[in-house]
Fold this sequence. Notes:
This protein is 49% helix and 15% strand. With 351 residues, it is an alpha/beta fold. The strands form two sheets. The protein has a six-stranded mixed beta sheet with strand order 1-2-6-4-5-3. The chain is elongated, with a radius of gyration of 24 Å.
Amino acid sequence: MDEQENWNVDLTEENDDGVxxxxxxxxxxxxxxxTLKGYLDKSVSGQLQIPPFQRSFVWDQVKASKxxxxxxxxxxxxxxxxxxxxxxxxxQVIDGQQxxxxxxxxxxxxxxxxxxxxxxxxxxWNGKTYQELDEADRYQLDDTVLRATVVQQLDPxxxxxxxxxxxxxxxxxxxxxxxxxRKCVHSSDYLSLLEELNRLExxxxxxGQTKIDTxxxxxELLLRLLALSDSWSQYKKPMKKFxxxxxxxxxxxxxDTVLSGAESTFSDTCNYILESLGEKPFHIRGRLNYAAMxxxxxxxxxxLKAGIPNLSERYKNLLDDKEFIEWCTKxxxxxxxxxxxxxxxxxxxAT
Length: 351
């Protein structure tokens, strides 16, 4: 292993209002010469994490076979990038899933529901599984090095940079949106809970969408409601970073109590809003207004705890508030605007 290096990384990112903002991380990175068999061992042990995303493996058998052929021929193959988590030392694959998974699947003799036999390669290997290769070829494959660049964040004291690194290194054919990236890099029981809550009938009626959004935009809205409900007074733009930080914080929490509490609170609040306001109450000017929904959800969760029986008349008064409507339509992710509209919503609906 070569000498490790520490870098200060200054990134710029467009915030919710279209303004470029600076983001600074201190990261440690180093090359690691892992063998293909080493990747298999780390995968089996659970140290190597392939993010559970529906488009994680998209190569067909021919393309995967060509990669194995390249290894057998000793041809150079591009490096992969791994992210080392601070607390667990687990390795998250942030670039190179196709290469790593192709090798692992060949060792394990599986390609989906089929046996992984090399296809459209040199006649010497065509149609063979790993076990059917000559001993020399198996040793060649076992010992082939696929160099990894391992990255670990040193400062701030969290793993927030993985999102930005993945966003820049993602080389898939389809550009992933922010929530899809979160699913790749922040996999957790809490994120799985969000996807489960996204199927609730009351929630679907409130947002006016019967079908689950395959691009996870409905899950992102749900995440936004829970994050603001948890800590709206500490909100700082951009919204994307705020949501990332909430997922990181929730990922660290252990036990079923937190998850069951979040589940019951969200379900009860959605039922309460639906009973009080009916279906699609946040479609202002014909479209679902995220700002009206997030502020009303935060206030409604407090109103439910306070035992306020019905929000209907109070909500009508809120929508008649010209300032509130302006806060729901202009600069909706600005720190001051978020605080003002949620505070106004709480004052009208929950006090």
